[in-house]
Amino acid sequence: MSVETKQMPAANGGVIVAGREMPEFHQIGVEPLTGACGAEITGVDLRKPLRDEVLSEIMTAFEHFLVIMLRDQDLSNEQHKAFSRLFGELTELPQAPIYAGDRLMQEVRREAHEPASVVPFTKFHTDSPFLMRPPLCMVMRAVDAPRYGGDTAFANMYLAYEELSEGLKEVLERLRVVYSGKDIWSKNAKLDKDKQLRLRETHDFKEEELENIHPAVRRHPRTGRKALYVTPAYFKRFEGWSEEDSRPLLEYLAYLPHKLQYQCRVRWKPNTLIVWDNRFLQHCGIHDYANERRHLVRTTVIGERPL
User: Fold this and answer.
1) Residue 97: beta bridge partners?
2) What string of DSSP letters covers 95-155?
């Protein structure tokens, strides 16, 4: 199905966006970012308690658009965490640097003088797929943003899966992926200093917790909608395949989120807050802000074991 078809009005008069008919919203403002995914929410101040009907519509928007954005949310760390907990239990990550000494908050930071390699920018990925229960979502807020550039791009992996041929879908339905984060630190240590990532130095995760096997096609636990769940980040091989045999299929699947018709982009400004569904999106930070500082802080909500 083409992008043009997806954006045509539905038979009942509704608008198709993010691959499904757009829900109605009465308590909050919702403006889709693109026809593929993403929406800006207005009329909400996260420093104040949310009425049940407002929270319900925020959750509806999150499930439908996969990434929601709210501007001008000047939150304390505790307010940030309180809003995040509405999505589920918070968790730490073994590789992500903590923020302000709080193990439940992480930071993504690149100082103006630092090389681009401090944080991974160039490839679409999903975060921490090597965990038994990878993150459900991230709640990220901009502390400092470049004057221009530094956007985060997102790709809807429901759409990427749904537009595959039926034959390839059948193959992928039978495949499982071995993801491993065991060698993150050893690989990083071998790089030149100006190419190393900023990683958390110590953590309490056991080594066996850093490798797991998940399905290549993932289902939403409530709706059953299917999405591609293959990302080069932490990928070792398809289960039962060699690394060499796995590589050509991985390279093709890794190309899919780069298709513009699956994407939206978020432009960061100070106090912009987003929530993105880490299960059914891939994302990529864009390095186009030389000599500028970019500082984002976030919480991570633990997810279910991929179905």
Assistant:
1) none
2) SSPEETTEEEEEEEEE-TTS-GGGS--SS-B-S-TTSSS-EEEEEEEEEE--SS---EEEE
Residue showing tokens 């944080």: 119
Are 106 and 98 spatial neighbours (Cβ–Cβ below 8 Å)? yes
> CATH no. for residue 255?
3.60.130.10
For residue 218, give every residue at least 6 positions away whose Cβ sits within 8 Å of its Cβ, in sequence order, or none: 226, 227, 228, 229, 279, 280, 306, 307
H/E stretch holding 164 reads none
191 token code pair? 């790089």
Q: Are 55 and 171 in contact (CB under 8 A)?
A: no
Cβ proximity of 236 and 247 under 8 Å: no
> Among candidates 158, 174, 161, 176, which has minimal Cα distance to 223?
158
The total number of structural domains in the chain stands at: 1
pTM for this entry: 0.93
The secondary structure of 193-220 as a DSSP string is GGG-----S-----GGGGEEEEESEEE-
- Is 251 contained in some domain? yes
Is 200 within a domain?
Answer: yes
Q: Which of 48-52, 75-79, 92-96, 275-279 has the lowest mean pLDDT?
A: 92-96
